[in-house]
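Quick entry between incubations.
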Amino acid sequence: MQIILNNRPAHFEGEKITVNELIKRKNFTFKLLVTKINGKLVRVDERDNAWIMEGDKVEVMHLISGG
Amino acid sequence: MTETLIRNHLSHFEVAIAGCGGLGSNAAVALARSGIGKLLLVDFDRVELSNLNRQYFFYDQIGQYKAHALADNIRKIDRSIELKTIIVKLDETSVTQLFARVDLVIEAFDLAAEKQMLLETMLLNFPEKPLIMGNGMAGFGKFELIKQQQWDKQVYICGDFTNEISEDNPPLAPRVGIVANMQANLALELILKMRK
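Done. Structure below.
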């Protein structure tokens, strides 16, 4: 399936994928991530049940200590 | 827009500063100098010697609560600003209570986990209220990596999105100051478009 990940096209095997699976496959290693599907926040404890489908717009941002 | 018009507009608005360290103290001072009407200064911590390399405090303020010391410093710049100080470690409950009535929130925490807490709490409770975050500003140089990004309808991020603080990548005055002032600059831009 084809999705938009952080404003760029991305391709994944299969018809759907959870947010946690996407994080694993893309190797996002930062501990603190904020994720959204189609503009809607997906909290940490929702990431195993939040499904990403064909055409979805997904955003993953890592938060960095310092301030 | 003349400075008189800008100051007159800003005088009707209140900004919350979530964390009065490197980002928060410098952003608050920039907003104060610009003529913001009210500042809500929130921090649980006290001024330490090691903070003076980048935070808007002075040697004789070591040991004082940061929120109180920052309020004192702002009063030396402008006595007409209404200042509220709150000594608390912000969590979901206090964010929801304290930030309900402010017009805009500046995120100026140190730890990524706290940044995440504030972002998620604001998105869930106050999706219409502007939140300006700092994300990645340790080290020196690399000015070209620093940017401003709109991440949600009302969530804006300033920083390089990359440089985490560590022993070998400390937060230093110039880069922290750049991001703090970017946050204040964007706050002005957003508030000057608001109506009351």
